[in-house]
Amino acid sequence: MKLIPALNALDRLLGLLVGLLAVLGSAAVLFLAAVTVVAVFWRYILNDPIFGIEDLSSMGLAVVVAGAIAYGATRGAHVSVNVLTYFVGRPVTRFTDAFTRLLGAAAVGFAAYALAVKGSCGFECGAFTANLFITHQPFYFLLSAAMAAYAILLILHFVRGLVHFGDAADPHEIRD
To answer: pTM for this structure?
Structure first.
């Protein structure tokens, strides 16, 4: 079947994007740790709080979230409860998996679109931090990219589920 190599190539490409987001998120965690140490030292030891430190922390946290969303999606880290298989089994969950993957892709895709639209307004719409006036625009776009990667992953899982519809198991099916 010619579809499987194309799906594998898309999966590898998506893995590169998610890996990049994970590296950015990891660097942001280190940045947040350093900011916290410096802020605590300045506030409590030197008794001179740093102006705008909250702005740096909140923007750094947005990068962490973007990395975590995409990386967690590819590693199955998001919480799911699969009660339906206990009652109806695989013949029914083949259909419910397809439906929930499409519904999830639509919801996450809509969120990616909304973040991109909101982010495109930027500074003119007042989307900036309170103290340092850091524009939210690149952070909205980063979050949008992470959500888009998640939506693409769900669509990829949907297509793989259709390819393996008659098989004994879907490779992305939730295991007990």
So the answer is: 0.85
